[in-house]
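Action item from last week, closing it out:
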Amino acid sequence: MFSAYFTQSVAEDTIVGTALWGHTLSLAALIVAFSSPVLGAVADKTGSRKPWLGGFTAVSVLAAAMLWFIEPSPSYALPALILVGVGVIAFDFATVFYNALLPALAPPDKVGRVSGWGWAAGYAGGLTCLVVALIGLVQSQAPWLGLDADRAEPVRATMLLVAVWFGIFSAPIFLFTPDSGRARHPIGMAIRYGIRELLETFRNVRRHRNIVKFLGARMLYIDGLNTLFSFAGIYAAGTFGMTVSEIIRFGIALNVTAGLGAAGFAWIDDWIGPKKTILISLVSLIVFGGGLLLVESKELFWLLGLAIGIFVGPIQAASRSFMARLAPKDRETEMFGLFAFSGKATAFLGPLLVSTVTLQFGSQRLGMTTILCLFLAGLVVLLFVDCPTTKPLTEP
């Protein structure tokens, strides 16, 4: 919602707004990609992860709340972009520590279930928050609290809703779960030891070949998944003539099937392992995605699109449980820092491929086929990754 508000009401015009928004997110992605591994390595040396998680969560919540003060005027464009960039970076940093808690909170035989249920709960919470925002603020004839639509207060208030929502539902992990360790080194010493150990990891990459292969595979198929999220609405509008209202309804339905898929495949992950779960999901995405590029009717677009949604959640959840099983004991946060790196380092590649092929051949359908190529490439690399039944107790 805020991205649309920024490009349409805050920026000088939609073209400039779109470019500024894209540059901000790209810069944030680069910062996250190259800082997360270092941050994770340092955190492993301090031992405790929840203080880091709490700090970055607080920054995310504060940045979201501060967006309320962004009024519909170009003079607010720079503060808006700074707050968005800080919020995105803090959220992604927090996710490194959040994911690293998984091995300590879930028994080895239930890692897939806990990861899948967590991802499904995230989809459910996000959709509920969206519905509350749409009904109570954005689409209401009489917005709550007498907010002034002429000053865009209902849309700006969605950021306050997000901040309160995020803060409240973050509380249980701090109140009711144990930390994964106690502080072992002061912060200064932890920084030196953490960076030294991370550099040692890169120097001795052969000792971690299996993890490197997995992260390489994930880098490809997650880039395809993120590109699919970015271009699905554009494809629906351009090729199938769907209206904004139809795209919003489709997006909500797609998130429902993704959440159901993440929850349903949670058992399958623990039963057959995360590698097979990801492979099944990738094959399904390629098959249904290929069909989506061939059909002409809007009805078949809905049918195949919702089928794709079923396999989006399992890929995300099973990737996290796979990393939890592969990460050496006491180096989980470092490895999840590398995990974050693999999700951000090539974030430019998918959109670049889609836009280049679309322009070259004048066809959205051909442009979108590059996403299937990324899925296929990730699948091929994943075939060469060994999947342990439980996480290793010592370094490989």
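Closing note: The first helix runs from residue 2 to 10.
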